[in-house]
Amino acid sequence: MGKRLLSRWFFYGYVGGHVRHVCGPKVVVRSQTDCIVLSVIKDCEEYITTFIDYYLAQGFTHIVLMDNGSTDRTLELASQYGQEGQGTILQCLLPFGQYKRHMCNYMAHRFSTHRWCLLADCDEFFDYPGSECVTLSQLVQYLNQQNATAVLVQMLDMYPQTAIGPQQASRNFRTTHRWFEVNTLEPQIIPTGLQNQLPSEDLHLNYGGVRQRIFDASPLLSKFSLIKPDRYLHLVGLHLVSWARVADISCVVYHYKFLAGFSQRVTQAIRQGQYYQGAAEYKQYQAKLSDEAGITLWTQESIALAGPQQLIDLDLLTVSERYRSYCSAAASAPPSATSLTKAP
Questions:
Q1: Could you give the angle at the alpha carbon of 272 between the alpha carbons of 270 and 277, nearest 5°?
Q2: Is the pTM higher than 0.85?
Q3: Torsions phi, psi of 236, nearest 5?
Q4: What digits encode the pLDDT tens for the residues 142-174?
Q5: Are 75 and 12 in contact (CB under 8 A)?
Q6: Any alpha helices (H) in 2-145, and if so which ranges?
Q7: CATH architecture assignment, domain 1-122
Q8: What distance in Å separates the CA atoms of residue 110 and residue 105, rounded to the nearest whole number?
Q9: Domain-by-domain residue ranges, the chain?
Q10: pLDDT (tens digit, 9 = 90+) per residue, 20-47?
Q11: Is the CB of residue 15 less than 8 Å from the CB of residue 98?
């Protein structure tokens, strides 16, 4: 543990030495029941306004964005929120693939030690069981009561019913990209040996999905991205954690990767080599995309998104009896008492 802590603080200092404050509060005043969003961003102007507006509307009290050298309007658009005090905008130009985890770790410990935060990419939109009747602060209150420090979040790749073409992405993607699939997911157990305290509930990791079906890729579609950093919790890559007390529920991020213009973004990612193993997964995407002007992901087995309760019924999300009881007690409207009752 000592070597791990020394390594973490070495990289914290190293990244901190390369961070430039762009705008917004340098210090964020926190409460025990609030939650903020932390994101490393680059060239995501088609997402950034929708991303920030979504999380502010969901009840997240602040957004911290670390720009990694955008060449489009991402920084300009994000800075509007920083100037209004709703976000803190930073910039760090260290190589993305090598330092993204350390950038996330830097933001988490600078802005969220002993407080809850969500690590989210700009194409990920968070939701949780009971969100129709329990506020975000009530969710955080529950996690605090359980003394949890990490929540497993399942990633759901969303896509449209029509072909994904080369044209510019629409800002209306959350409406058009409302389809997903579960029959192609491959569940696996959470690795042992990470010193995590796991609940008795059946939490698992998912691999594959539509990216396995179409591109022969097998990405990890689960990550511990809702965390409460302390001196023990440690990010293992970008998806796993060690020395965490894992909550007895799982949450979801709707992942809008497949927007119009996807092929151009794949080409850019390969050219920059900024993702895992030199963008190896993106090279698999390119091999398929090079044969088709547009690609259709939708099939007869695709499912239209209805919300978290639907995902519970499909066994994608896990909720404990304790959390069901908490939601029933916390909700003000009588129908909420059964809102988390799983369909037989």
A1: 60
A2: yes
A3: -110, 105
A4: 999 999 999 999 999 999 998 887 665 567 899
A5: no
A6: 2-16, 45-57, 74-83, 96-111, 136-145
A7: 3-Layer(aba) Sandwich (3.40)
A8: 8
A9: 1-122, 123-344
A10: 999 999 999 999 999 999 999 999 999 9
A11: no
